[in-house]
Specification:
Blueprint: H1 4-14, H2 19-26, H3 30-38, H4 45-55, H5 59-64, H6 68-72, H7 77-109, H8 127-132, H9 137-140, H10 151-186
């Protein structure tokens, strides 16, 4: 049977509560609560009673809660935790690789030899716009595939807002012209 500290952690995670949330309800610091979840500090009956209220469970339900490790039949909880850490590290590597690829793509389009190919009907296009106009880029350049504070993601979002405003402006102008032409035709 998994020790109660593992069950408490599993329940907290399943209820989508943070350590700070639970620590505050127990009247303790996050660090002290963390020590309870690690099994470094024994859980007092008083704290267990508060946890029953926080989790909306009886002490028996808490003690009988089946953790992910138990459901998966893992006797060593470190195996699951290590797998999760490895996957988190892989996600970070993928995000970094996505950003490096996009930065290299921008540099590619900054090549002076490509400058003439980036021109559109009315205006020349800069390297960032050339990258941002690639079909399917929205599937790559988002908060899942890049870091949320990525300058490229921020620039992309600003570019898309500007494009939307410009398109909306053109649409409104066209409507105004059409309306004026219809009104002048009725006179």
């Amino acid at each position: 049977m998994t020790e109660i500290h593992n069950k408490i952690k599993s329940i907290r995670l399943s209820k989508k509560l943070t350590q700070e949330d639970v620590a505050q309800k127990l009247g303790m610091s996050k660090a002290n609560y963390s020590r309870i979840e690690k099994g470094d500090v024994a859980l007092t009956p008083e704290k267990l009673e508060i946890l029953q209220e926080v989790f909306g469970m009886s002490s028996e339900e808490i003690r009988n809660h089946e953790t992910a490790q138990e459901r998966l039949g893992l006797t060593n909880s470190n195996v699951l935790e290590e797998t999760i850490k490895q996957q988190a590290a892989q996600i970070e590597r993928m995000q970094a690789n996505t950003e490096h690829f996009l930065e290299a793509l921008v540099k590619h389009f900054q090549n002076p030899a490509l400058a003439s190919t980036l021109e559109t009907k009315d205006t020349p296009m800069d390297a960032m716009a050339a990258v941002f106009n690639i079909d399917g880029l929205a599937h790559i350049l988002n908060k899942e595939n890049t870091f949320a504070d990525s300058p490229l993601l921020h620039a992309y979002n600003e570019y898309k807002k500007a494009q939307l405003l410009m398109t909306t402006s053109y649409f409104i102008d066209a409507l105004n012209k059409d309306l004026k032409s219809r009104l002048s035709g009725k006179k």
